[in-house]
Description:
Elements: H1 8-18, H2 24-33, E1 46-50, H3 57-70, E2 74-78, H4 85-98, H5 104-130, H6 150-162, H7 178-183, H8 185-195, H9 199-206, H10 208-224, E3 230-234, H11 237-253, E4 264-270, H12 276-279, E5 286-290, H13 296-305, H14 311-321, H15 325-333, H16 346-353, H17 360-368, H18 377-384, H19 388-399, E6 404-407, E7 410-413, H20 415-428, H21 430-451, H22 457-460, H23 464-480, H24 482-498, H25 501-517, H26 521-549, H27 554-570, H28 574-587, H29 592-604, H30 608-621, H31 626-638, H32 642-655, H33 660-672, H34 676-689, H35 694-706, H36 710-723, H37 728-740, H38 744-757, H39 762-774, H40 778-791, H41 796-808, H42 812-825, H43 831-842, H44 846-857, H45 870-881, H46 888-906
Parallel strand pairs: 1-4, 1-5, 2-3, 3-4
Antiparallel strand pairs: 6-7
Helix pairs in contact: 4-5, 5-6, 5-8, 5-9, 5-10, 9-10, 16-20, 18-19, 20-21, 21-23, 23-24, 23-25, 24-25, 24-26, 24-27, 25-26, 26-27, 27-28, 27-29, 28-29, 29-30, 30-31, 31-32, 31-33, 32-33, 33-34, 33-35, 34-35, 35-36, 36-37, 37-38, 37-39, 38-39, 39-40, 39-41, 40-41, 41-42, 41-43, 42-43, 43-44, ...
Amino acid sequence: MVRRRASMQELIRDRRRHGFIGRAAERAAFRANLELAPEDERHRFLFHVHGTAGVGKTFLIRELEQAARDRGALTALVDERAEDLPEAMAAIGEQFARQGHRFKDLDRMLATHRERRHEAEAAVLETLDRDGNADGDGSGNGDGSGEPSAASLTVARMGVAGAGLIPVVGPFAGALDAERVAAGVDRLRAGLSARLRSREDVLLVLSPERVLTPLLLGELARAAEQTPWIVLFFDTYERTGRLLDGWLHEVMTTFLHGELPANVVVVTAGQRPLDTARWGGHADFVTDLPLEPFTEAEARGLLAARGVTAEPVVAEVLRLTGGLPVLVSTLAEARPADPDDIGDPSATAVERFLRWEDDPVRRAAALACALPRSLDADVFRAAADCPPDAADRLYGWLRGLPFVTAHGDRVRYHDVVRSAMLRSERLRSPRGWAQRHTRLAEAFGAWRAEAEAGLGPGERWADEAWLRLRLAESYHLLCGAPRTALSTVLQDVIDACGAGEPVARRWAQALADAGRDADAAGLAVWGKELLRALAADGTLAALGVLLARAGFTARLRAVVCWRRGTVLSGREEHARAVDEFDRALAFDPGLGRAYRARAVAWARLGDRTGAVADLDRAVELEPDRVETLLLRGDQRRVLGAYGEALADLDRAVELDPASAPARAARGVTRHLLGRLEEATADLDLALELDPEFVWAWVRRARVWRSRHREERRVADLDRAVALGPDSAWVRCERGDALTAAGRYEDALADYDRAVALDGGYASAYASRGACRFRAGRPDGALADLDRALELEPAYGWALYRRAEVRLHTGAHDGALTDLDRLLDLDGGYAPAHTLRGRALLGLGRPAEALAAVGRRLGPPPSVPPAGPDLDEAADLIEALRAVPGADLPELGRLADRVARAREAAGA
């Protein structure tokens, strides 16, 4: 007979009757598993549901149980009411009996176990009475009845558990003084042996799982023959797992107790993930189902199913519950029509999170430690305000709570748990809330002050330890006194923007968090606006928000504009940066760092004179600031004012002899002045002060080149490449040194890497072209030089090298064009005249070639400037002698001048 398929209306009715919203993926995974044969490798035998309290674990496993029964499965659910393993087995048996499968053999043995355990407890009670531990007077129950009281039986049960004679959870676990029990263990065991009838009875009391588990497996095997599936559910596993987890692992993965039918599926649900040490190697048959709070869509769906659809009400429920299903459901049941009708569920949530903890000291510590955003042992002591001798023990306990997770060397509460606890504490005692946050701010402030020792103002924002402490201090200040702390924290945001977007985002998030946690709308708005600005255009936009809304003094507004300018400079938007620096100086004409920063922007725009003028003003304002003197010395050096540059750099070194940048910059200036020994000494010392100073390694290599120490030059550049392997400039510098040494293949490898690192680096293309030409590859050389001049049309050195290649290939017209362009750019480029003479001679214009040689040598009777092209000039003169009608006397005079130039160069 074909089974009738349910109609759409019936399915919709059933779903509405269950009223279950969300967890669709988890339910689908479980249902799909029941469609797979146990032999299928995709089938899973164990599902573990886990998540924080209130996330809906119990609700989900009830749904899974119903789904299993809909497929004809036998099911049983065990929760914390089972205080030991025999009671868990009894719960399974009772539920199967209600479904028509009575476990007769197991039931009989469980009854025997209860009788023997009662006798064992009586033996314990007698032993404890003799030791004076039962009622304190050795009189049994103290009422003369001869029957043990409930309190005495509890003590007996605790004694058996404490002696390790039976496994137990629930209220008895750990409740008796272990030392007092341990002292009587031998007497307890002797008393048991005397009371119980046989060795099997002793085993049934002391190790009930060894007797009862094989019986349970046998009963399950018989039931499994009559049903497609058996599904066993174990809820509140954070409690029952201490009893059941090891036992379940043995039953499912070993043959210690017998065989478990293959059509049994186990579902556990608790606050913690499974123990990886025990279950980590069994991922092939375990499905992990972590539950998080409802998404907004799921929460809205649940509310809509309960008839709660008004947007203001829905928004308030979402805010108050954090999507925690139990709270969403609780508020939805009341069907509020107005936000004012909604009660705060925080206290309810907190009770669920701490439902197993009755110790008031522990509860107070857990609530107090929700205030910090993260914890270590020091923060715990400051927050919990507990006795010093108990702090370490309590912190260890706190770390083990299900909603507390490790983050590096710190721990954090689950966001939903922490939010509920914070709201509950703030509503319970607003003044106490503020005072506790203030105390935490003071503690973090003291630690932050300690961390500042040895850090300069500019180093603090790069130090992660200092940042974390300052951020925590700011958060607690905001929570404790939102209005008075805001202006101070907004000033920190300015500096945070200077430290980069990630740091600025942390400060903005702290404002948003404090606004939410302290229910301070103003803080929340600031945090959201800054986060939105950072997402839109980074720190530039965030600083714009501060400038527009913060109400800063003129001095602080100047600092904000200066920060915006530095951001723009970092983006290579130097013209816009200059505008921001102008604004900064309009707010505060005495802001020296704005002049300094604007000078850098002018230099990047090519206005070195403007840069020096700004640096002059900066030096007037801060005459002993090494950074400013160093910058002005560099700019003067680039302008060719070597004497003035050296004066600045001498002063910088005098002020800070240990400044590697000042030493290196002075070394470069001395190099340009021809003072090679002094240049080497400065650069040597700079590299002693900072062995990883790449710029100094390259600059000292240039000094070695001037001193004709090519091996030292290459060695320094090898070190520079090791320190900066991804610098196109450094690779190109070493390529030039290797080319000069005739190591063309090695040089080409460096140029290739430079081009790969920076496809717009004209120098790399030009140098590679020159190297290829020297290596006998003129076609590749010409392509590289063409590319260099596409990138930088006024690149004189590249024009000269391309002219060389064109002459070599017979392209005299092209060579002449390049050289004419070069001399337009730099009429003092003497070697270009010699090369131009060769091009003119090749074009059949000897008279013009002769004039070009004369321009190379300069007006007589001066000695011509030395240069590597003098040999070419001599060769060209000899070639012109062979031209019919040549002016031989003039050629003789030119040859004589070349000879004198060579002699002077040799001297």
